[in-house]
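One thing: mind reviewing this one?
=====
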Amino acid sequence: MKKYAEDLATNAAELADRIAALPETGARRRLAAIAGAPGSGKSTLAQAVVERLVGAGLDAVLMPMDGFHLDNRLLEPRGLLPRKGAPETFDFGGFAATLARVRREPTVILPVFDRSREIAIAGAEEIRPATTHVVVEGNYLLLDEEPWRGLRDLWDFTAFLDVDEAELERRLLRRWRRFGYAPDAAREKALGNDIPNARRVAGAVVTADLTLRQ
């Protein structure tokens, strides 16, 4: 656990320094993508990066991709509910359109995903006119599949977390147990859905500016 905390601090510092140093592009904001498989630690790292950017005096906001999950009411009739979290279970069009708005519009309201209830909450986060840096985190930001590869031109900086599958499995089992799932149910969530998604992420990655291997 101590090593994880040390690695998190080191990686967050490096990413924050690189994002803070991004040159002006003429766009209203700089967008940085932090991608990785389920359980790779991207959400924790992205939050730490934003905290460092804010601590350095920059107006930075975290934008999780998970807010664009399709609701269970749409997934169930499509037969996709057991695969919730796979690329096809997100509102890609809404996500891409929102990213384009983030680059150019003064104020953008974002949805946020509540993992404890597994639902997206509309209008839960705000990107303000003063915001200069947005750190976006999600599994498929660098996925080399259509339509996701079309996002590559939106990013000013990209990072990918490359984590060994055995370590991902350990973290995912712990995650679902923490959310109250019984051991068998937690194992089904982790191995039946998350790990296949992790393999899909690892198998088709657009080259990142920085790859962090763990």
About this structure: The helical segments are 2-20, 42-55, 72-75, 92-104, 165-178, 183-203. Residues 2-213 form a domain with the Rossmann fold fold (CATH 3.40.50.300).
